[in-house]
Amino acid sequence: MNFKSMIVLVLFIVGSIFISPVLGDTTTRTLTDMSGNEITIPTDIERIVVACQGGVAQEIVIMGNADMPVAMSSMNLFPMFVKMYPNFKELPNAGSFDDLNMETILKLKPDVVINSVTASKGNAKITENDIPVFQAYTGRAAADTIYNEFRAFGELLNNPEKAEELISYWDEKKEFINNRMKSIPEDERKTVFYTSNKDLGTDTNWGVSYVASSGGINVAKNLGDAKVNPEKLAEWDPDVIIVRGNTDGSYPDQEILNNPQLAGLSAIKNGDVYNVPIGGFWWDRPSPESALGFLWLAKTLYPDTFNDVDMVSEMKSFFKNYYRYSLSDDEANSILSVNN
Predict the structure, then answer these.
(1) Residue 85: which of 95, 98, 72 has the closest Cα?
(2) Domains, the chain, ranges and CATH?
(3) Whole-prediction pTM value?
(4) Is the dihedral of CA 280, 281, 282, 285 positive or negative?
(5) DSSP 70
(6) Alpha-carbon gap, residue 172 to 162, rounded angstroms
(7) Quick count: other Cβ atoms within 10 Å of Cβ 160?
């Protein structure tokens, strides 16, 4: 080897030493979850254990694909979602939140576990076993902060474009509702009580966002998460009562309608008590599908103002574009039939 060749070789070796640290490890990357924690995950995510609900499975299929989950808590509450993705029925259940089956999780060798920001004990178990855990909001989001989660899932699943498309869809629907509501003075807007059970429990975290995004006024907006006594509800006397489905899939609307302590409420006397539909997920909880819930509630509160909104058409378009599923008219009408 001549002197010139030796110089070139030395420069190559020295350059490699300095360049390698710059290039770094291309098999992993970091991102920030909804708890604010920075986590290290594989560059390509292929195996996910879903240890919560909160719209997480829906975010995965929209920004990733249905083959990614290797374990999932029960989806029995959402029969339409399972119909679209029947493979989810066959997945093992590795537990959820703080009640986890770590033996099952370890056997599955996931790239990441997705759990709730509320599951501090469960999340600690996962990280103790050197498995990255991505913490999702699971109901702790508002109509604007949920965009942070959509973007984080887009980053997690290497599909930021779909996340931005979903956010644009939400912005479009919220702007549509806001523009229509300009024709209705503030003092003529419907007052709404949003309840999640027969005991009149209310959620003013997402509940305020949900009602406000739909053009209503949440009478309990300053209360916080609490049970409301009948006397307080009578004092508010809301125009409309919106009822969330129970965790067993039923609705407590009849118990509310037949409660003699509530018989004097305007919403009861006028028949303005409505169950919120459940599509691929609850429409009144934070998830990608919530924008359909905004449209449904706006049309329910102000049928004349939104008389041209075709919910079946809106649903079919959303399901096709985001779930990659051709929803039939019968399926759409079945979802909407909770108040028939």
Answers:
(1) 72
(2) 31-158 (3.40.50.1980), 183-339 (3.40.50.1980)
(3) 0.90
(4) negative
(5) E
(6) 15
(7) 16
Q: Tell me how far apart the alpha carbons of residues 339 and 63 are, in angstroms, rounded to a whole number.
A: 32
Q: In this structure, what DSSP letter does residue 319 have?
A: I
Residue 293's CB is within 10 A of a number of other CB atoms, namely 25
% of the chain surpassing 70 pLDDT: 92
Nearest to 158 by CA among 46, 323, 286: 46
Per-residue DSSP letters for 136-164?
A: E-TT---TTTHHHHHHHHHHHTT-HHHHH
Residue 75, strand partner residues: none
Q: What is the mean pLDDT of each run of 10 residues along the chain (340 residues)?
A: 52 48 74 97 98 95 98 90 96 96 98 97 97 95 92 98 98 98 96 84 80 94 79 94 83 90 95 96 94 98 98 98 98 94
Total number of residues shown for the chain: 340
Question: Both tokens of residue 29?
Answer: 């990357």
**Residues 62 and 322: beta-carbon distance below 8 Å:** yes
pLDDT of residue 4: 53
What φ, ψ does residue 43 adopt, rounded to 5°?
-60, -45
DSSP E strand boundaries for 12-154: 28-32, 38-42, 48-50, 69-72, 95-96, 99-100, 112-116, 133-136
Distance in angstroms (rounded) separating the CA atoms of residues 340 and 338: 6
| Beta pairing, strands 38-42 & 28-32 | antiparallel
Q: What is the pLDDT of residues 102-155, one digit of tens each?
A: 999 999 999 999 999 999 999 999 999 999 999 999 988 888 899 999 999 999
Beta partners for 48? Answer: 69, 112
